[in-house]
Amino acid sequence: MRLAASALAMVLAACTTTPIGAQEPAADTVSAVRDRAPTEEVIYFVLPDRFANGDAGNDLGGYEADRLKSGYDPTHKGFYHGGDLKGLTEKLDYIQGMGVTAIWFAPIFKNKPVQGDPAKPETLSAGYHGYWVIDFTQVDPHFGTNAEFKAFVDAAHARGMKVYMDIITNHTADVINYAEGEYAFRSKGAFPYSTRGGPDGEPINEGFNGDQDSSGTNWAKLTDPAYAYTPVVPEAEKDIKVPAWLNDPKYYHNRGDSEWWGESAVYGDFAGLDDLFTEDPRVVEGMIDIFGSWIDRFGIDGFRIDTVKHVNPEFWQQFVPAMLERAEANGIPNFHIFGEVYWAGPKPGGLAQFTLRDELPAVLDFTFQAAVTELVAKGASPEVLAEMLKGDILYKGGETAALQMPTFLGNHDMGRFSMFVKDANPDADGEELLARTMLGHAMLMTLRGVPTIYYGDEQGFVSDGNDQLARENMFPSKVGAYNDNTLLGSDATTAVDNFDPSHPLYTLIATLADVRANTPALRTGLTTINTFDREAGLFSVIRTDRASGQRVLLAYNTSGDSITRGVEVDYRTNDVETLAGQCPVSISAPGSIAITLPAFGFAVCELIEKKDD
């Protein structure tokens, strides 16, 4: 159903209760920043290459002015565009003005500039995203220097903002080839470690007792990596990786490309990238040293860990405690670690196993993303979100642990939430698409979890697809596939700067971030499922903060029609205070209030209880 202009106006009006403007830098000390629990944050996820170009002098990264050498081509969606740490630092006012308290950025380690087959131009792209690491000890020169990273961290901390690094332990850049010229996955059963090239081959690695024996004595016997394939490294790249131990092929699985299921999901190369032998204690030790050093040197506040489900659980059982201990030793008691487990659908069981078996403190909440998309974009029954939230008890630590899971609506891999809304509603006009997208962000900012904003979403970016098509520039773009997009809530295109603090989505996020910061129940409140409709319509929950006793009713209308519903409240409730959106001025009767919401509207209402005499 098409949303009436008056209804949209009501939604927008409900989101502008607090004037939004440039905020003064926070006066918090670094110790005050570190004292905050992960649940206190609002996270902003950004790809530095696509955000702001503060120094055009590093666009080539010190390489030749040839896009196949430098990886720089601002007209191509899969190459470097020039964004850097200096630009990100210069835009901290803009980011903080949105109410963001923590910045998570894609990996900034030195990458192999270009990968792919020059004979097949369609396979070529650059490491602008940061996931093709060759040097884990320094910042990629396209982004700046280690000193500029230190300046960024210091500038963020001075404002009271945290810095989360995106890290990779599963793989490095694609350097290792196979002499056989084949790359199909070869399993451990068909190609054991004990023979070269299959059971009938020459015996090798005498005495090696398999990769489940983690003793150093056992691993000292794995000396020949040619059990499945014969790994070879081009002469020009034989010493390209840092630290130097990463250049030895024996520290990689060398079993061919992942098929994304079964054994290959852990032992196979991720789209050709060199898959580290994370069962080997030397690799475990090496990764602990690498990433512990970033904590030691720069005092960062957390890690988002890439490709978690493609690494054996035993690795995480050692790596995570080591990182938390390293952070604690550096005076960082609330170091936030959350893993990326790309999981489809709104059922949390698949995610929960990684907090139980792998012992990760938190995972990115893909089930939240799926549930909100089902409701807001596709018009599913609110029961989908209700059932997803009921699954919080499955995580290690239960509902309390779920509070520190970063929630999100879209990202650089899957695409933007606005795209999902647009694709599911091809006949909707811009008003409706914006209203639905704003409702999704209202859910993100008020339901349980740590809200995580994907850069550009606050400016109404609408991706054309996933991966490269969802990684638009915030600074003027020269990519045609980006610049022909119609943005939500704006007449701008990606061909110009998009740092508008008056954009309705930016304003919404900033307003709700302020409400969240001043409402304990929105940060640490546990969730009780309340009234919801069977079809698209009302979904409501009550969040209760145990420490303060504060109770907040959250109500959302997922339909294109205005609704009025009676909603149950505690019988002790005798008043209602509006925190955001449209709340009733009083209770209807003991145990009930009447909620009226416009199409795709929402309300955040504090429930005030009468006190005993």
Entry summary:
The protein is 27% helix and 16% strand. It is built from 19 helices and 20 strands. The strands form six sheets. A seven-stranded parallel beta sheet has the order 11-10-7-2-1-13-12.
How much of the sequence is in beta strands? 15-25%
The chain-level mean pLDDT equals: 94
Span of the ends, CA to CA: 50 Å
List the strand order in the largest sheet. 11-10-7-2-1-13-12
Q: Could you say which structural class the secondary elements and strand pairing correspond to?
A: alpha/beta
Helical segment count: 19
- Profile the largest sheet: 7 strands, parallel
Q: Radius of gyration from the CA trace?
A: 25 Å
Total beta strand runs = 20
What sort of overall outline do the alpha carbons produce when their principal axes are compared? globular
The helicity comes to 25-40%
Which stretches are poorly predicted, pLDDT < 50 over at least 5 residues? 1-27
